[in-house]
Amino acid sequence: MSKAIENLQSALQRAMAGCPRVGGFPCLAETLRQAGIRYNIWSLPSCQSLYLTGQGPVVAQGTPLVSGMEDVSPFDQGALITALRIDQAGNSTFPEFLMAAWKAGVVSYKVDFGERTVTYFGSAGESYVESYPAVEL
Q: N or C: which end of the chain has fewer CB atoms below 10 A?
């Protein structure tokens, strides 16, 4: 196992053990930032996550949201924001959030841990950027 994978796994374990269920994303993000992870790029619906770290890139393959061919929904910023607020309130699981984002037309998103932003992208180049607050661990 590479140092990059060991570092990422350790940071994810620390975050899962110490972050609250409601409003936990900024805590998770800060834990990853402090571990040297610069960006996290998610591809939907494949649920492939690419982490760009100071020790090298790491890919994590999750369970895809769909199989076979499926139409991509048009980008719906309002539906995405609703999914975000439901998740931020602790009223959805991460897989439920991913599915809601996919249904809102999100095909990928990029977390910039330095800038504290998440940018969500639609298939036609649409985007929505949301900042998250700084936290102290």
A: N
How many angstroms separate the CA atoms of 43 and 36, rounded? 21
Domain of 35, in residue numbers? 3-131
**DSSP conformation letters of 85-137:** HHHHTT-S-HHHHHHHHHHTTEEEEEEETTTTEEEEEETTS-EEEEE------
Cis (ω within 30 of 0) for the bond into 45? yes
Q: 135: which residues sit within 8 A by CB, 6+ positions away?
A: 26, 27, 30
User: Does the pTM of the predicted model rise above 0.85?
Assistant: yes
pLDDT digits (tens, 9 = 90+) for 68-124: 999 999 999 999 999 999 999 999 999 999 999 999 999 999 999 999 999 999 999
